[in-house]
């Protein structure tokens, strides 16, 4: 797949996740956060199961044990990150949650460079800085005093960064993006329902009331968007993927304003433009440098 198409998938994933913030927030009016997590990932796992099975039957070799262990680690990381974000949304706003979750765009390149020792393309650093400033502007240039929900969401951002890096590490060598997605969804569903049934009320009427949010989050914000992420990351680096995925903050603010009536400050529109410019830099910067480095044909 060409890199620009992979980045388009990552951008679409960010847009769907941004819409998903609204569903995650309104679902809490009816059910607890862990039951919601378990059900959304259950829907996603059921939908993806036949595609993962088809991928497995077409594969030349079964998934190796180290790769299966890696897929399970990704699922565990996904569950804990989602749990922190979901519980945080019961306390903080959709806009604040989108901003703080977007901090992983800064965390990913630092982990990649200083922990994994991988050199990054030079354009990544200014693109990351532009994205972070843009996300900060979306929040109005400041945050109110951080509450517990905000702190939980910061913890979520750290784990999202780890999840993005782990996906980048395992999806390419394994060559099984759909299997990876199915395993992480199934594990997150089991963990979410297990914790939810043990700690939260569970009634059919509550599930029915939250069913639209569960189906949207399960089919689109989970099944479709996370699969876009896994497929897209086969053809790009984790830091660049984080830039495109972080547009969820932009879309979270947009849909929070349209659906929930949350206000986007004037500075937020400038932030949105800055994020867009950062995406262009991350997408076109490497191409410009490659073109300059290419040897010029000799004159006849």
Automatic annotation (TrEMBL):
Annotated ranges, domain EamA: 6-138, 148-281
UniProt entry tagged with the keyword Secreted: no
Main location: membrane
Membrane spanning stretches: 33-53, 65-85, 97-116, 123-145, 151-171, 178-198, 204-228, 240-260, 266-288
Topology within the bilayer: Multi-pass membrane protein
Entry annotated with the keyword DNA repair: no
A Pfam family hit: EamA
Keywords, alphabetical: Cell membrane, Membrane, Transmembrane, Transmembrane helix
Compartment(s) where it occurs, according to its Swiss-Prot or TrEMBL record: Cell membrane
Full protein name: DMT family transporter
Organism: Hoeflea algicola
Taxonomic classification: Bacteria, Pseudomonadati, Pseudomonadota, Alphaproteobacteria, Hyphomicrobiales
């Amino acid at each position: 797949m060409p890199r620009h198409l992979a980045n388009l998938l990552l951008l679409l994933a960010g847009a769907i996740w941004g819409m998903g913030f609204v569903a995650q927030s309104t679902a809490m009016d009816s059910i607890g956060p862990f039951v919601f997590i378990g059900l959304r990932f259950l829907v996603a796992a059921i939908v993806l199961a036949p595609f993962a099975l088809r991928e497995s039957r077409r594969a030349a070799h079964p998934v190796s044990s180290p790769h299966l262990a890696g897929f399970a680690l990704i699922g565990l990381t996904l569950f804990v990150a989602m749990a922190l974000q979901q519980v945080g949304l019961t306390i903080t706003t959709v806009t604040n949650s989108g901003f703080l979750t977007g901090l992983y765009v800064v965390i990913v390149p630092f982990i990649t460079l200083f922990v994994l020792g991988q050199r990054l393309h030079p354009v990544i650093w200014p693109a990351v800085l532009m994205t972070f400033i843009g996300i900060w502007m979306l929040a109005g240039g400041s945050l109110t005093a951080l509450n517990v929900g905000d702190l939980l969401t910061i913890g979520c951002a750290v784990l999202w960064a780890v999840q993005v890096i782990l996906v980048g590490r395992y999806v390419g060598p394994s060559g099984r993006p759909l299997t990876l997605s199915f395993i992480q969804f199934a594990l997150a569903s089991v963990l979410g329902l297990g914790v939810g049934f043990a700690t939260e009320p569970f009634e059919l009427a509550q599930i029915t009331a939250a069913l639209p949010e569960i189906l949207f989050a399960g089919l689109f914000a989970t099944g479709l968007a996370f699969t876009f992420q896994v497929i897209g990351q086969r053809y790009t680096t984790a830091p660049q993927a984080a830039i495109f995925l972080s547009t969820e903050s932009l879309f979270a603010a947009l849909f929070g304003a349209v659906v929930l009536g949350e206000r986007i400050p004037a500075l937020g529109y400038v932030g949105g433009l800055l994020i867009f410019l950062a995406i262009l830099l991350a997408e076109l910067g490497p191409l410009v440098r490659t073109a300059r480095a290419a040897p010029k044909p000799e004159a006849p």
